[in-house]
Each structure stands twice: as C-alpha cells, then as structure tokens.
Design a protein that fits this description.
The protein is about 25% helix and about 45% strand. The protein has helices at about 15-20, 45-50, 75-85; strands at about 5, 25-30, 35-40, 55-60, 65-75, 90-95, 105-110. It is of the alpha+beta class and about 110 residues long. The protein is globular, with a radius of gyration of 13 Å. The chain has 3 helices and 7 strands; from the N terminus they run E-H-E-E-H-E-E-H-E-E. The protein has one domain: Hypothetical upf0131 protein ytfp (Roll), CATH 3.10.490.10.
Length: about 110
C-alpha cells in the first residue's frame, strides 16, 4: 500500500472521513529539508471539508536542518487518488524519503 505523509489538514479525522470514508491510523515522522508556509484556499468544496481558509503547505528550504513534523498513513491507491482530488492546484505530490527512512508521498508547493 502507498504511504502518505501529512503535515496538514489530511491529519484531521473529519477531513479523512470526508475524503476516504474512514479515519486513518498513522505514525509520527518528519520531512527534512522543507519548511511550512500557508496557502489561501478558495475552492468552496475544500473550504467546506476543512473549515479553514488557509492550509499549511511545505516548501523546499535552503536550510538542511529544517524539518516538518507530521504523520505517515497507509492508504490505498483509490485513497491516494481521493487525496489528489482534495488538494488544490497550489500543491503537487512527490515521493520523498522521510526521517525514518521510509518512502512516502507528500504534497508540496507546486
């Protein structure tokens, strides 16, 4: 099963229920070489699900010690596609190696 690293709204049980029809079980991990910023959300569907007008977004950092804490979730291919549909065009999905050494998908600044 694919692994998905989330540092933002996909960690919220209500957002998980809305997108995946279930709550995800995960474990803590971190993404090195990135920092967190905010992006304004204008998509009404995403706003309705998250209830937040600004979402965190990670951007590559020039400071190697920068690290973003989050959770790793096992998801199905269909759930990964649902996450793609949920994320707005400001995000793109990439495969990264997390601090634990596992490879996971993460949404970063497009």
């Amino acid at each position: 099963m694919p692994l998905l690293f989330s540092y933002g709204t996909l960690r919220d049980p209500a957002v998980q229920q809305a997108n995946f029809g279930r709550e995800l079980a995960g474990r803590s991990d971190a993404l090195s070489g990135f920092r967190v910023d905010l992006v304004e959300i204008t998509d009404p569907d995403v706003l309705a699900v998250s209830g937040q007008s600004h979402h965190p977004i990670v951007v590559a950092s020039d400071v190697p010690a920068d690290q973003v804490a989050g959770m790793v979730f096992e998801v199905s291919d269909a759930e990964l596609a649902a996450a793609d549909d949920y994320e707005v065009d400001d995000y793109r999905r990439i495969l990264v190696t997390l601090a634990s050494g596992v490879r996971a998908w993460v949404y970063v600044q497009a």
